[in-house]
Amino acid sequence: MKAHVRIASYDRYGGHSSISIIGDLLEHAAKRAESGVAVFEATVCFRTAGRPKPTLEGRYSEFHAELGSLPRFRWEPAKGRFSIRYESHLGTADDVLRPGPPSTALLQSALLELTGLLSDHQASLRRKPGLPLAAFLELALSLQKMIPATDGDLDVLRRELSDRRRAER
Known about the structure:
- With 169 residues, this protein is of the alpha/beta class.
- Helices cover 43% and strands 18% of the residues.
- The protein is built from 7 helices and 5 strands.
- Strand 4 (72-76) and strand 5 (81-87) form a beta hairpin.
- The longest helix is centred in the C-terminal third of the chain and has 18 residues, at 151-168.
Protein backbone atom coordinates (compact mmCIF):
# COMPACT_ATOMS: atom_id res chain seq x y z
CA MET A 1 0.00 0.00 0.00
CA LYS A 2 1.03 3.56 -0.70
CA ALA A 3 -0.37 6.04 1.80
CA HIS A 4 -0.19 9.82 1.96
CA VAL A 5 -1.70 12.04 4.62
CA ARG A 6 -1.47 15.75 3.90
CA ILE A 7 -2.70 18.91 5.56
CA ALA A 8 -4.45 21.85 3.94
CA SER A 9 -5.57 25.29 4.92
CA TYR A 10 -6.50 28.14 2.61
CA ASP A 11 -2.84 29.08 2.23
CA ARG A 12 -0.96 25.82 2.98
CA TYR A 13 -0.84 22.35 1.49
CA GLY A 14 1.54 19.46 1.97
CA GLY A 15 3.13 17.38 4.64
CA HIS A 16 3.24 17.99 8.36
CA SER A 17 5.86 16.65 10.77
CA SER A 18 3.26 15.02 13.06
CA ILE A 19 0.16 14.34 10.97
CA SER A 20 1.80 12.97 7.80
CA ILE A 21 3.44 10.19 9.81
CA ILE A 22 0.06 8.43 9.71
CA GLY A 23 0.68 7.64 6.05
CA ASP A 24 4.12 6.20 6.78
CA LEU A 25 2.71 4.11 9.63
CA LEU A 26 -0.08 2.78 7.39
CA GLU A 27 2.42 1.74 4.73
CA HIS A 28 4.57 0.01 7.32
CA ALA A 29 1.64 -1.76 8.98
CA ALA A 30 0.20 -2.85 5.61
CA LYS A 31 3.29 -4.96 5.00
CA ARG A 32 2.19 -7.22 7.86
CA ALA A 33 -1.58 -7.11 7.43
CA GLU A 34 -3.47 -6.84 4.15
CA SER A 35 -5.97 -3.99 3.99
CA GLY A 36 -7.30 -4.46 0.47
CA VAL A 37 -6.47 -0.83 -0.36
CA ALA A 38 -3.58 -0.19 -2.77
CA VAL A 39 -3.46 3.60 -2.35
CA PHE A 40 -4.77 5.67 0.54
CA GLU A 41 -4.82 9.45 0.39
CA ALA A 42 -6.14 11.73 3.10
CA THR A 43 -6.28 15.50 3.16
CA VAL A 44 -6.87 16.96 6.61
CA CYS A 45 -8.29 20.49 6.26
CA PHE A 46 -7.90 23.17 8.91
CA ARG A 47 -9.86 26.39 9.36
CA THR A 48 -7.88 29.56 9.73
CA ALA A 49 -8.75 32.07 12.41
CA GLY A 50 -8.28 35.71 11.66
CA ARG A 51 -8.06 37.56 8.40
CA PRO A 52 -6.73 36.19 5.13
CA LYS A 53 -3.44 37.38 3.74
CA PRO A 54 -3.68 40.21 1.21
CA THR A 55 -4.49 38.95 -2.32
CA LEU A 56 -5.71 35.58 -0.92
CA GLU A 57 -9.16 36.72 0.19
CA GLY A 58 -10.88 34.78 -2.62
CA ARG A 59 -9.05 31.57 -1.82
CA TYR A 60 -9.85 32.03 1.87
CA SER A 61 -13.58 32.33 1.15
CA GLU A 62 -13.63 29.37 -1.27
CA PHE A 63 -11.70 27.11 1.09
CA HIS A 64 -13.85 27.87 4.11
CA ALA A 65 -17.04 27.45 2.06
CA GLU A 66 -15.80 24.01 0.91
CA LEU A 67 -15.38 22.90 4.53
CA GLY A 68 -19.17 22.79 4.82
CA SER A 69 -19.32 20.00 2.21
CA LEU A 70 -16.80 17.76 3.96
CA PRO A 71 -16.11 14.94 4.65
CA ARG A 72 -15.76 13.58 1.14
CA PHE A 73 -14.90 9.93 0.50
CA ARG A 74 -13.88 8.44 -2.83
CA TRP A 75 -13.30 4.79 -3.66
CA GLU A 76 -11.84 3.88 -7.05
CA PRO A 77 -12.04 0.07 -7.20
CA ALA A 78 -10.11 -0.29 -10.47
CA LYS A 79 -7.10 1.44 -8.90
CA GLY A 80 -7.71 0.28 -5.34
CA ARG A 81 -7.53 3.95 -4.31
CA PHE A 82 -9.36 5.23 -1.24
CA SER A 83 -9.31 9.02 -0.77
CA ILE A 84 -10.81 11.17 1.92
CA ARG A 85 -10.88 14.89 2.54
CA TYR A 86 -12.20 16.12 5.85
CA GLU A 87 -12.18 19.06 8.22
CA SER A 88 -10.12 18.60 11.35
CA HIS A 89 -11.48 19.71 14.69
CA LEU A 90 -8.12 19.54 16.47
CA GLY A 91 -7.80 23.32 16.32
CA THR A 92 -7.15 26.05 13.80
CA ALA A 93 -4.33 26.01 11.28
CA ASP A 94 -2.64 28.76 13.28
CA ASP A 95 -2.61 26.60 16.42
CA VAL A 96 -1.96 23.11 15.02
CA LEU A 97 0.23 23.61 11.95
CA ARG A 98 3.14 25.34 13.58
CA PRO A 99 6.53 24.20 12.32
CA GLY A 100 8.61 22.08 14.62
CA PRO A 101 9.50 18.55 15.56
CA PRO A 102 6.83 15.85 15.52
CA SER A 103 4.46 15.68 18.47
CA THR A 104 3.23 12.36 19.86
CA ALA A 105 0.12 14.02 21.29
CA LEU A 106 -0.81 15.61 17.95
CA LEU A 107 -0.18 12.34 16.08
CA GLN A 108 -2.39 10.41 18.51
CA SER A 109 -5.15 13.02 18.26
CA ALA A 110 -5.00 13.10 14.45
CA LEU A 111 -5.10 9.30 14.26
CA LEU A 112 -8.06 9.13 16.65
CA GLU A 113 -9.85 11.76 14.58
CA LEU A 114 -9.24 9.81 11.35
CA THR A 115 -10.33 6.44 12.74
CA GLY A 116 -13.33 8.06 14.43
CA LEU A 117 -14.37 9.62 11.12
CA LEU A 118 -14.14 6.26 9.36
CA SER A 119 -16.09 4.56 12.14
CA ASP A 120 -18.79 7.25 12.15
CA HIS A 121 -19.31 6.92 8.39
CA GLN A 122 -19.25 3.12 8.16
CA ALA A 123 -22.87 2.93 6.98
CA SER A 124 -22.30 5.15 3.95
CA LEU A 125 -18.86 3.68 3.23
CA ARG A 126 -20.28 0.14 3.16
CA ARG A 127 -22.38 1.20 0.18
CA LYS A 128 -19.22 1.65 -1.91
CA PRO A 129 -18.89 -1.63 -3.84
CA GLY A 130 -15.62 -3.44 -3.20
CA LEU A 131 -14.30 -1.10 -0.49
CA PRO A 132 -12.66 -3.34 2.14
CA LEU A 133 -13.69 -1.03 4.98
CA ALA A 134 -13.46 -3.55 7.82
CA ALA A 135 -9.89 -4.60 6.94
CA PHE A 136 -8.78 -1.01 6.37
CA LEU A 137 -10.35 0.25 9.58
CA GLU A 138 -8.74 -2.59 11.53
CA LEU A 139 -5.36 -1.67 10.05
CA ALA A 140 -5.85 2.01 10.91
CA LEU A 141 -6.88 1.18 14.48
CA SER A 142 -3.77 -0.97 14.91
CA LEU A 143 -1.57 2.10 14.39
CA GLN A 144 -2.21 3.31 17.96
CA LYS A 145 0.09 0.53 19.18
CA MET A 146 2.90 1.75 16.92
CA ILE A 147 3.05 5.30 18.28
CA PRO A 148 6.05 5.81 20.59
CA ALA A 149 5.64 7.24 24.07
CA THR A 150 7.90 10.29 23.65
CA ASP A 151 8.38 12.98 21.05
CA GLY A 152 12.07 12.07 20.76
CA ASP A 153 11.22 8.44 20.00
CA LEU A 154 8.64 9.64 17.48
CA ASP A 155 11.28 11.68 15.67
CA VAL A 156 13.52 8.58 15.52
CA LEU A 157 10.61 6.49 14.19
CA ARG A 158 9.81 9.15 11.58
CA ARG A 159 13.40 9.06 10.32
CA GLU A 160 13.44 5.24 10.26
CA LEU A 161 10.22 5.10 8.24
CA SER A 162 11.53 7.74 5.85
CA ASP A 163 14.80 5.82 5.40
CA ARG A 164 12.89 2.58 4.69
CA ARG A 165 10.75 4.30 2.11
CA ARG A 166 13.84 5.78 0.45
CA ALA A 167 15.57 2.37 0.41
CA GLU A 168 12.52 0.75 -1.20
CA ARG A 169 12.53 3.30 -3.98
